[in-house]
Structures are given as structure tokens and as C-alpha cells.
Design brief:
alpha+beta, Helix Hairpins, five-stranded antiparallel β-sheet, single chain
Length: about 425
């Protein structure tokens, strides 16, 4: 899919550039041809005027008087042209020739072509001549002007345009390819994460489903047994079903946060009481695990948010600390207000997280040590990050052998009822 998007991106860009280049070169060619035509008409009129009157204005060689800084006027006397007259008997006479040598046969041939033409002016391409026909008092006079330089200039313009356009398209192809890779890099990363997410979710759901189907097969193989006799398989099926339900609920929560549909709430939440209450629920877990649980909670810290999500956030961080504190280890939770923020930190002893793993701990299904993470899916910290982000906060992690592992959450303290933002349903 990503490769297809890249091809479409490059194709669309190249098509747009091609259209723009064609429009620019077409406009350039059209204006050049129009300017050549206008210049030729002026030159032809000048030829007729100068050879029609003895006192016609002549070009004078002198220092150009051009105070405006524009281009000097064109010297029409140096144009390669000639004038012929045709009487009623179609006798062609060369009146004069300016900078050209023309035979009577050639003059007769081009004059006949000009006389047969429907327009009074035009181009005789076989001879590369422009002509202008004027009839006065029964005499037709025709001015001819060499157009080979104009034709050559237009040909050079077309060749140059094709060369520049081709090189420009080639250069823009590589630019488009680079931009396509750059622009689609986040899309490709998101696509790869989605594929990995689907693969991991399928793998995690497969295990409880396999257990449930195996238990069902065992139960069906003994239809004469009572529920009490097969209690082990029934309870195991229920346990796996609950695990699968929890996994699906976690996946739904993450999907909602991805679509910004989780209601982070705007009700006042006493974060101090929420943290203290969650801490009490883990006191028995700490006692059974032999983990020393300490706290330093500043009372009266209130923010606008969702109390259930705050409780879940604290539960995830404390549960994580309990798991990895190690035998006879310790865990400590602290909550303090820091300016306009509430700062919640959970620290535990135990083996530190490798530096290479730290950037990935909040990724879905990522587990630093799968052997130690039995029973978990690697979604807890990802859910915690989504909760923090939905409340406008930030969560970080630091881990060293000396200081242990510390998760720090920074949440903005907003006055109840004053929180603004997008409504989420």
C-alpha cells in the first residue's frame, strides 16, 4: 500500500509539473510568435513606405538617444526584403531590394503565390518569406521579407524548451521521489505499527481461545460427568474468558483514545485522595510480595479530569512497580504540586530497564522481559500514556541500577469548570 501511495504521489506531482511546464512553454512560444508577426508587419510596412516615396524617412546612423534605458529601435534598412509591383497584365517588376539578391524568376514565383493567397499578408514557407500585399490605382505592390531568422529562432526556442522541460521533469522526478518518501514516512510508520498491533493482538487472543476450545473439547468428551466433576475445566475456561475480556476492553480503550473519543472529563478530581485510595488497595499485594511500599502524598491537590481514569493510571503504575521491585524490594509513590502542575512519580527497585528499551516501554504489546511478564499483555503503560495525554499531561521514565526505575507523570492543574478543549463523546 505504501509503495502504491508513493507512486500516486510522484505521478500526481509529475502531472502537475508537466501541465505547468506545457502552459509556460506554450505561452512563451505564442508570445514569441506574436511578437515576430508584429515586428514583421512593421518591417513590411516600412519596406512599402520607403520604396514608395523618394522622401520617405531613412534610418540615420547616430548615437542612440535612449534616456529611458529601453532597447534601441530595430534597423529596418538591414532587413533582408524586397518589393515587387504587379500591373494589370500580371507583369512582375522588382522595384527595389534591401540587402538581398533576387532573380526575376524567383520574384515572379513568389509574387504569383502571394497573388493567389486569400489573405493580404502571410507566410510563404517554401521560400521562408513573409509578404504584405497592397493594391492602389490598379497596381498591386507586394513587400517580401526574409523569415528564415524568425523560423530558426522559433525552432531553437522549441528545442530549448524541450531540453529544459525534459531536464526539469527529470530533476523534479527525483525531488518528488524524495518528498514522497519524506511525506509518507509517518504514514508508513503508522501502517507498520498498525500491522504489528493487529499481529500482536491476534497472537494474544489466540492463547485464551486455544485454552477455551481445549477445555470445551475435554468437557464434551465426558458428557456423563457433572459440573462438579469437571469443575477444574469450567473454572479454567472462565478464567481465560475473563482474561480475554480484559484484553478486549484494553484494546477498545486504546482504539477510543486513538480516535479522541475517550471522555477525559472536566469534573473536579481530588487527585490526592485518588492516589491514597489506590495505594490502600495495593497494601495487601505489597505485603504478600514482600515489597516495602512507601508514600509521600501532598493533600488537597485537585484537577479537572476523569476520576476513574486517574485511579486506573495510579493502579497501572503501582502494579508495574509491584511486579518489578524484586524480592524484598521497595516501591515509593509521591504526589506534589509544582507550579501549575501536579507531579506524580512512582519509583521501584529491581533490575533496571535497558537504555535500548526505554524509548519503547509505552508501545503497545511491548514487554522488556516476556518471561517476567506472564499474564500481562504489554498494554498497561500504553494505556497509562493515553490517559495522561488525554488530560493534557506528559509521562516519562528513567531507569538506572542505582536509583531504580521511576515513572513521572506531569498533569496540568486547571480550575474546576474552567477547562477548555474539544468535547469528546
Amino acid at each position: 500500500m505504501i509503495q502504491s501511495l508513493k507512486k500516486k504521489f510522484v505521478l500526481i506531482n509529475m502531472s502537475l509539473v508537466l501541465v505547468v511546464l506545457l502552459a509556460v512553454f506554450s505561452a512563451l512560444s505564442f508570445t514569441t510568435a506574436a511578437n515576430q508577426q508584429q515586428s514583421a508587419e512593421r518591417s513590411l510596412n516600412t519596406l512599402l513606405m520607403r520604396h514608395n516615396s523618394a522622401d520617405a524617412t531613412k534610418f540615420e546612423i547616430k548615437k542612440p538617444n535612449n534616456p529611458s534605458g529601453g532597447l534601441p529601435q530595430r534597423n529596418n534598412e538591414l532587413l533582408a526584403g524586397f518589393v515587387v509591383s504587379v500591373d494589370e497584365s500580371v507583369l512582375v517588376t522588382v522595384e527595389s531590394a534591401s540587402s538581398v539578391t533576387v532573380s526575376d524568376e524567383t520574384a515572379q514565383a513568389v509574387a504569383e503565390i502571394a497573388l493567389d493567397a486569400s489573405a493580404d499578408s502571410g507566410m510563404i514557407r517554401a521560400y521562408s518569406l513573409r509578404y504584405l500585399r497592397v493594391t492602389e490605382n490598379g497596381v498591386t505592390r507586394i513587400a517580401f521579407l526574409d523569415a528564415s531568422s524568425d523560423i530558426a529562432a522559433m525552432a531553437e526556442l522549441i528545442v530549448t524548451s524541450l531540453l529544459v522541460g525534459g531536464l526539469g521533469l527529470l530533476a523534479f522526478f527525483f525531488v518528488s521521489l524524495f518528498l514522497a518518501n519524506l511525506a509518507l514516512r509517518p504514514v508508513e510508520a503508522a501502517w507498520n505499527r498498525q500491522k504489528q498491533f493487529v499481529a500482536d493482538a491476534s497472537h494474544e487472543l489466540k492463547t485464551p481461545l486455544t485454552v477455551i476450545l481445549a477445555n470445551q473439547k475435554i468437557l464434551l468428551s465426558h458428557p456423563e460427568h457433572s459440573i462438579a466433576e469437571e469443575r477444574q475445566w469450567v473454572e479454567n475456561t472462565q478464567s481465560e474468558g475473563n482474561r480475554m475480556k480484559a484484553l478486549v476492553e484494553d484494546l477498545l480503550f486504546l482504539a477510543k483514545t486513538d480516535r479522541m473519543r475517550v471522555d477525559s472529563g472536566s469534573a473536579p478530581v481530588n487527585l490526592s485522595d485518588t492516589v491514597q485510595g489506590t495505594l490502600l488497595t495495593f497494601a495487601s499485594v505489597a505485603f504478600e510480595s514482600g515489597v516495602s511500599l512507601e508514600d509521600d502524598i501532598q493533600p488537597g491537590i485537585t484537577l479537572a479530569g476523569n476520576e476513574a481514569q486517574m485511579r486506573r493510571l495510579c493502579g497501572i503504575l503501582l502494579d508495574n512497580a509491584m511486579k518489578y521491585a524484586g524480592a524484598h524490594g521497595s516501591a515509593r509513590i509521591e504526589l506534589h504540586s509544582d507550579g501549575g502542575n501536579a507531579r506524580l512519580s512512582v519509583r521501584n527497585t529491581g533490575a533496571p530497564i535497558a537504555q535500548a528499551d526505554l524509548p519503547h516501554v509505552f508501545e503497545r504489546f511491548y514487554r522488556v522481559d516476556r518471561a517476567r511478564s506472564e499474564g500481562g499483555y504489554g498494554l498497561g503503560l500504553s494505556i497509562a500514556e493515553n490517559i495522561v495525554r488525554s488530560h493534557g499531561g506528559r509521562i516519562t521514565v528513567a531507569s538506572t541500577a542505582e536509583a531504580g526505575t521511576t515513572f513521572t507523570v506531569t498533569l496540568p492543574l486547571r480550575a474546576p469548570g474552567k477547562r477548555r478543549g474539544r468535547e469528546r463523546v
